[in-house]
Automatic annotation (TrEMBL):
The chain crosses the membrane at residues 12-32, 44-68, 74-93, 105-122, 128-148. It comes from the Bacteria. The keyword Transmembrane helix applies. The keyword NAD does not apply. This is QueT transporter family protein. Keywords: Membrane, Transmembrane, Transmembrane helix. It comes from Roseburia yibonii.
Length: 163
């Protein structure tokens, strides 16, 4: 039982670290924040399909990423919560391959536009931001996440083995 706990903590830490590295990398291309964003690290939101350790890992990874990339405090809070909600939803739908990527798309498409409009005072309407954030999330979570799912599914017994 103790080894399982250590494994989950290690998996969560690794997922958080990978999320941060991917977000910092894509930030160099100005794609990790703003009205038009394709945060490739959001592809990792498919990982709760394989391990519940991904839920805290994704939350911490998003929180740390938002802190190190200079996000406003309310963005750190609400952006991280959107990722947490999405990760929990993905875990809940883990048995449904085509539905599992949807919760982070929905959570971010609903929450992030309000952050853009009211925290960053971005010019534009909530529906416009929902469209732009939603498109980025579909690319990250559904397209890239589905590719990641397909690859990891082949090796899940080795990567996410719990005994």
């Amino acid at each position: 039982m103790r080894n399982k706990k250590v494994l989950r903590i290690t998996q969560a830490a690794m997922i958080a670290a990978i999320y941060v590295v991917l977000t910092v990398f894509i930030s160099a291309f100005n794609l990790a924040s703003g009205a038009i964003q394709v945060r490739i690290s959001e592809a990792l939101t498919i990982l709760p399909v394989f391990t519940p350790a991904a839920i805290p890992g994704l939350f911490l990874g998003c929180l740390i990423s938002n802190l190190v990339t200079g996000c406003m405090p309310l963005d750190v809070v609400f952006g991280s919560l959107a990722t947490l909600i999405g990760a929990c939803g993905t875990y809940a739908l883990r048995k449904h391959k085509w539905l599992a990527p949807l919760p982070p798309i929905v959570a971010n498409t609903i929450i992030v536009p309000f952050v853009l409009r009211y925290v960053y005072l971005a010019e534009g309407t909530i529906p416009f931001f929902m469209l732009t954030v939603g498109i980025g999330e579909v690319i990250s979570c559904y397209l890239l996440g589905s590719i990641l799912h397909r690859v990891l599914d082949r090796y899940k017994e080795h990567i996410f083995k719990e005994d």
